[in-house]
Amino acid sequence: MRHAKAEQGGRTDFERELTDRGRADAAEAGAWLAGRGFAPQHALVSAAARTRATWEALAAGGGWELEPDYDRGLYVAEPATAVDLIGLVDDDVRTLVVIGHNPTMAYLAQLLGDGEGDPELESQLLAGFPTSATAVFEYDGAWSDLAEGSARLVGYHVGRG
């Protein structure tokens, strides 16, 4: 997931907060995920203020009580680094949510897909990855083996509250 709509300015980019719309959009995305039966067992979230706030609103919208793993490295991660961070997740975790920043999250979503997902979803994903965009993948393997083209896109949604 890409973080929700954030303020244009802040003391630093890392400290930018969500707008009211961003909080509403993230909560709506959480409700959408929960409505599809998605309940994360682990949350890997960039440590930036806007991604932390996105997680809080997403979790509230989904009705999840889960302590996230805030990772400062995800803030500046390239797609390959994001895959490496995901690879460190315990294999007992079957459902994972990752919240980060563009362009990394858009590239990551495009790289992970095996191209065998629903063509309409694939088309929507390729058309853009705006704030609050959420791509849902199925993956059957060890997180450490996650690689390009190894997951199937089964959902795509842009939260708009």
Give the overall form: globular
- CATH homology-level superfamily: Phosphoglycerate mutase-like
**What share of residues is helical?**
25-40%
CATH architecture verdict = 3-Layer(aba) Sandwich
Sequence stretches where pLDDT stays below 50 over 5 or more residues: none
Identify the CATH class: Alpha Beta
- Tell me the strand percentage band: 15-25%
Which H/E pattern describes the elements? HEHEHHEHHEE
Number of domains: 1
Profile the largest sheet: 3 strands, parallel
Q: N-to-C terminal Cα separation, in Å?
A: 16 Å
What is the CATH third-level topology name?
Answer: Rossmann fold
Would you tell me the structural class of the helices and strands?
alpha/beta
Number of helices: 6
| Widest sheet, order of strands | 2-1-3
Detailed description of the structure:
The chain is an alpha/beta fold and 161 residues long. The protein has helices spanning 20-35, 49-62, 73-76, 79-87, 104-112, 119-127; strands at 42-46, 69-71, 96-99, 133-138, 152-158. The strands form 2 sheets. A 3-stranded parallel sheet has the order 2-1-3. β1, α2 and β2 (69-71) form a beta-alpha-beta unit. The radius of gyration is 14 Å and the shape is globular. Residues 1-20 are annotated as: Disordered. It comes from Nocardioides aquiterrae. Pfam families: His_Phos_1. This is Histidine phosphatase family protein.
Keywords:
Rossmann fold, 6 helices, 16% strand, 3-stranded parallel sheet, 161 residues, alpha/beta, Histidine phosphatase family protein, two-stranded antiparallel ribbon, 5 strands, His_PPase_superfam, His_Pase_superF_clade-1
